[in-house]
Amino acid sequence: MLPDYADVKTLHVASVVVSIVLFTTRYAWRVRAPGRLAARWVKVVPHVVDTVLLASALWLAWQLGRGALPWVLAKVAALLAYIVLGSIALKRARTARGRALAFSAAILAFAYIVSVALTKSAWGVFAPR
Ligand code: HEM
């Protein structure tokens, strides 16, 4: 039996909320208390949450079919940007300024993804009404 669309959407949105809370918390720790990032759960839980996020997203997109392709592809592209910028902010940047820039850009990418989800247009908040 297939899961209910509304239930999977709730799971998707819940994993989105947990994902951004974990990301901002890890960034705050990176800046103020880097030692806390060494905890085992901090290395594992975000990957589990992001896997649930992506799996639910792909299932929803598959259910919607080709009509949703333009904005779904825009979300996938922006999700990749969010992941890369997030990893620069948390790990790869060598300076505090580089980390802060990457973190701000990741938050912008996240906001764009939410606006695409709500408008169902790759233009996001700039979509013509
Ligand atoms: C950080 C990444 C993501 C965020 C922040 C996000 C955010 C959201 C939000 C807030 C909704 C609910 C929209 C509403 O209430 O109408 C939603 C729904 C949805 N998202 Fe995502 N999403 C993300 C990643 C993805 C990806 C990568 C895909 C595509 C593979 C995707 C596909 C969908 C689909 C198909 C829906 C259901 C649309 C509907 O039926 O209304 N999402 N997303």
Structure description:
With 129 residues, the chain is mainly α. It has one domain (5-126). The chain contains 4 helices and no strands. Helix 3 packs antiparallel against helix 4 (96-119). It is globular, with a radius of gyration of 16 Å. Residues 9, 12-13, 16, 57-58, 60-61, 64, 72, 75-76, 79, 82, 110, 113-114, 117-118 line the site of protoporphyrin IX containing FE (HEM).
Looking at this protein, list some descriptive labels.
129 residues; mainly alpha; binds protoporphyrin IX containing FE
Q: Name the poorly predicted regions.
A: none
Radius of gyration: 16 Å
Residue share in β-strands: under 5%
Average predicted confidence as pLDDT: 96
How many domains, as an integer?
1
Give the termini distance in whole angstroms. Answer: 38 Å
Order of helices and strands: HHHH
* Helix coverage percent: over 70%
* SS class: mainly alpha
Shape: globular
What is the count of β-strands? 0
Heterogens: protoporphyrin IX containing FE
Give a short account of the largest sheet: none
Supply the number of helical segments: 4
Concise summary:
The protein contains 4 helices and no strands. The protein has 129 residues and is an all-alpha fold.
Topology, pairings included?
Layout: H1 5-32, H2 40-64, H3 69-92, H4 96-119
Protoporphyrin IX containing FE (HEM) binds at residues 9, 12-13, 16, 57-58, 60-61, 64, 72, 75-76, 79, 82, 110, 113-114, 117-118.
